[in-house]
Amino acid sequence: MFEINLFIEPFFQTLYMVFVSGFFATVFGLPLGILLFITQSQHILPKPHLYRGLSLLVSGLRSIPFIILMIAIIPFTRLIVGTSIGTTASIVPLTLCAIPFLGKVIQTTLQEIPFGLIEASQSMGASTQQIILKILIPESLPGIIHAITLTLINLVAYSAMAGAIGGGGLGDLAIRYGYQRFDTNVMFFTVVILIVLVQVIQYLGEQCAKRLKR
Amino acid sequence: MIQLKNLSKTFSTRAGKITALQKINLHIHPGEIFGVIGQSGAGKSTLIRCVNLLERPDEGEILIKNKNILKFSSSELCKLRHHMGMIFQHFNLLSSRNVYDNIALPLELLNYSSQEIKKTIEPLIELTGLENKTQAFPRQLSGGQKQRVAVARALASNPDIILCDEATSALDIQTSHAILALLRDINKKWGITILVITHQMDVVKNLCDRVALLSHGEILECASVVDFFTRPKTEKAKKLIETLLHRELPDKLTQRMQASSFASATPVWRIFFKGQSAETPLISVLIQTFHLEINIFQGNIENLKDETLGILDVTVKGTEENIKKGMAYLREKGAQVEVMGYV
Description:
- Chain A is an all-alpha fold.
- Chain A has helices at residues 5-38, 48-63, 66-72, 74-81, 87-111, 115-123, 128-159, 170-180, 184-212.
- Helix content of chain B is 37%, strand content 30%.
- The relative contact order of chain B is 0.12.
């Protein structure tokens, strides 16, 4: 049949790509989502120009197909990680693709906080920073966890394309063995691993969110 | 304490401009409970939200302790808000925090240490009767309990002004009476000035010292609660108070009632009894001494905060002279008689 060893390296490559880019996506995407939320007109930090600019950027980035984004930003990738091929290099486009997605989902999540809560905290004399740290984030934490889970699952799917710039990973394995060499077994098993991986991420995310929900 | 001068506010919406407030002038004294009553859409919410600048007025001045807060910098405004509590119709508690932490929030914002917080809020938990609930989360509480938490939270930063935005409108009658009693207590104990806005006459009756009637962004009346109920100055105010108190005369009567007297007419009186006059058996005197035939068709007793007010709507049959004498007698005894019409 096939060697189990065949899967070990791609599996860890996928995990590496998904979680490292997921981490950076959270680092940038969470503030982006909050910024999108508070800079809307009639909100706690209304900055219409900034909001319009960010919105445009977010929807622009989200509408570029990942495979094209990955190739289009090669110079940028090289600037950041020093190379444009390999697993580490693929983290740059993956992160760049996940940031606007996460930002948008987090903005939507924050939108669900009753505005009365924000007003109540304003009436207590909370500063913008205090509102973000003491009200917005704690109140929407389950939703934020959900958003990050969703992003990780999306990253699993996108990481399959990373093979195009030599990123490796399970998706790349499936394409090379299954599609190019007609080795259906390898492809099938890869798909099974991917399904299990997505299920595990989803389960952990849901458990986390559930525990935080009051 | 709070002075509003020529306050105006207009909202522009897609449907056009809506004037929420028009040249509002109010002066709220330290230590009093002041009510603003009006029907929905009268501009009450905008008015109270202007006082801590959740809403900025277009024109006018807001003086708090003689300082115009419209000229405050954002840090001065934060400081001001730290010393003003606010209570909302929908409680606005943080669902992610338990009762204790919700009450602690205003102090956390002021960077108090956890010991200082504990010291400050424990008496408040006791005052609001939440001793058994400190670890509960808001979704496990009833409406009344939630509002108690909100009251304790509003008191945490030791405010000298509390703003109540329809604080009892989402509660049932019993619970809302308990919350009103709590607010009265707080006012008495610490002399905190309370500004209340509401559409419930009950709140005005049970809680307020003075009251203003707001309609379409304008103040129609501003008076002590007793005067407000017994002698409204404008016709419009009178109508609104009647609607709000469910005190309109029955349709059957109004249909045949005429504004001026005619031959063999029977006058319709509304008699207000206050304090002393409520204790003398005035109606039986009218019947026995003046031989009047009194037909009572509606009446009720309003228990105001500091006074009891009786209202009786009657038709009076008798000789013209006796009717005159009867009215003079009532007035002499301190009751107030108003001729509503003739049937």
